Amino acid sequence: MKLLLVEDDQEAAAYLKHALEEAGHAVEHADEGREGLLAAASNPFDVIILDRMLPEMDGLAILRTIRAARVRTPVLLLTALDGIDDRVEGLDAGADDYLVKPFAFVELLARINALARRPPPQEVVTALQVGDLRVDLLKRSVTRASVRIDLQPREFQLLEFLMRHAGRVVTRTMLLEGIWNFNFEPQTNIVETHMSRLRAKIDRGHPRELIHTVRGSGYMMHEPA
Amino acid sequence: MLGGSTSFRLAALYTAGFSIAVAVLGLIAMLSTRGALIQEFDSRLRADQVPVIDGWNQSGLRGLLREMGEASAGPGALMYGVQAENGAPIQGPLANLRAPNGVSTVLGTIDGKPESLRVLTVDLGGRYRLLSGDKAGPIEALSRKVLGGFGLAFAGLLVIGIVAGFALSRAVQKRLDAISDAAEAIIDGDLGRRIPVRRGDDDLSRLAATINRMLDRIGGLMDSLRQVTSDVAHDLRTPLNRLRQRLERSARQAEDPAHRAEIEGALRDVDAILVTFAALLRISEVEAGARRAAFRPIDLQALVRTVAEDFAPAAEDTDHRLEFQPGPPAWIEGDAELLTQMTVNLVENALRHTPKGCTVRLSTSVEPGAASLVVVDNGPGVTEAERGRLFDRFYRLERSRSTPGSGLGLAMVQAVARLHRGEARLSDGMPGLKAKVVFPVTS
Predict the structure, then answer these.
(1) Contacts of A16 in chain B (CB under 8 A)
(2) What does pTM read for this prediction?
(3) Hey, which residues 278-317 in chain B have their CB within 8 Å of chain A?
(4) ipTM, 2 dp
(5) Which of B162, B140, B160 is nearest to B152 (CA)?
């Protein structure tokens, strides 16, 4: 994937660039706002990773400018501010996702992957399928190998989220934000408890698992190889 | 409504005071006018009697009667009368009058009509009595006229005072309302609001300008506080970011699994610091109160039910029971995200600090003018002395020191409650701990 990283902290940028390249991405780095703006407007990128606090030109100003120029590349905003209003402001300016510094690299990687292969917004999906697991979003019914599975509303949401991100890592924080709307860290493992119940219903009794734990990162749904 | 208006009360008080002054002044004017008239009348009585008494001195009763006849002739003359020492009338219209010696006011009959008369009675050698006098009516009429004039002024003053008091208090009230409206808007989070200042340099305009200056100053302080907070956030997060990245990189490169586990432990410590840091910043943000502007109607009952459902499986996993008692919808004005975090904190607090097998009950209720949330457990409870301190930041019970937690959960609960103009209280749950958050509801 082709990524643009706009970040003024040289050391942090060097680490991220190196780690992202190790993960198989091509990274262009801009350490200053104007340069980032130019790069964003002139080259196609799959995802732009934009630091919010930059010297000279503020990250939000860049974001507004490129959105005004109809550049629709997904933007992941990195920020040291995590006030509720800061988040709302960032999303209002046109960011697709928001990550508060410091973050785990796997979190960044998972979010980049989630942003890059998003289906176009106008496409309406009514059914999802992974292996022999089928979810009908209209009837809200779930079957695996043609056997009906009953899920609680939260379990259904969790499954839908995993299936929409099939083949990609979904982190605990992404689930907390995407399903529970929690922008804070609860002290209870509600993701784990719901996930273990979902897995028991989806994978128990089947020779091949569909929901996988990715050590140190989160979860991934994919077809058995 | 007007009773509660300071300016109306002042105007009423002023009018009452002024009216009493006018009434007293009227009474004094009437009395002194009457006194002066009587004094003048009395000296005329004495002066006019002089030639008549001279007549008596020169030629006895005959001379007296002659002079009396002359004196009572002509316009504006006094009336006279002579009577014997025993009161038998001798001559003159006042001869029938009973009056003590000297000047007196007595009732008599003149031309068949009863009249109040002012009379000077003089004893002549112990044999006769001479009376001279006139109707006292004109004096009383003039006094009444003076009093009437003042009465009219009194009534006019009262009417003008009341009307002016109303007008004045309404004008002042309007300006005071503008100040209090602006203050309410600022309390509700519209920190940019200022009191409208009218042209002209009166006391209220000066007060408004002073309050606005004070608000500018508070706004400046809040801005710099926010700036400091965000600087601290930035200046702490940047090195923490590097620290985390270095640790991450080392963990990746570590060959020795024990070494790697050590570094991953350090990463967890960094993340724990970050959680506490984020919680502290969040509490400050909530306490600043700026989020009220984003309030909208929220059904507290539905929100609490969702939290109960989401946390029930986790409660089960630690051998707790989490129960929700359904109730009617409880609508309040608020911030859904913060109210959810508040409820989560209360639930987590109850689950973490009660032993296995305990039950945590969640419920909401609606009372007139208020909606409330109750979280009650049947654990060991907390002593009254400690309950008071549980809302303090970083306060932790002695027996909870070993359980994980930042000591910020309940501080956040109170901050969110107060942001919503509510109050969180802890009480004895008999046997456990009962937390109740009451929110005011304006209909």
Answers:
(1) 245
(2) 0.67
(3) 278-279, 281-282, 285, 290-291, 309-311, 313-314, 316-317
(4) 0.87
(5) B160
